[in-house]
Amino acid sequence: MTYDIAGSPITLTVSSLRKVEWDTLRTNFFAVMPPGVLDEFAASYITSFHLPLGQEPLLNRLVSDYSNFTVIDLSALMEQIHAIMSKMTHALEYVFAFSLLAGVTVLYAALVATREERVREATLLRVLGASKKQIVSAVLTEFFCIAVLAATVASVAASLLAYYISVQVLNIAYHFNGTLALLALAGAALLVPFAAWLGIRGFLQQPPRQLLQSS
Question: Would the pTM count as exceeding 0.85?
Answer without folding.
Answer: no
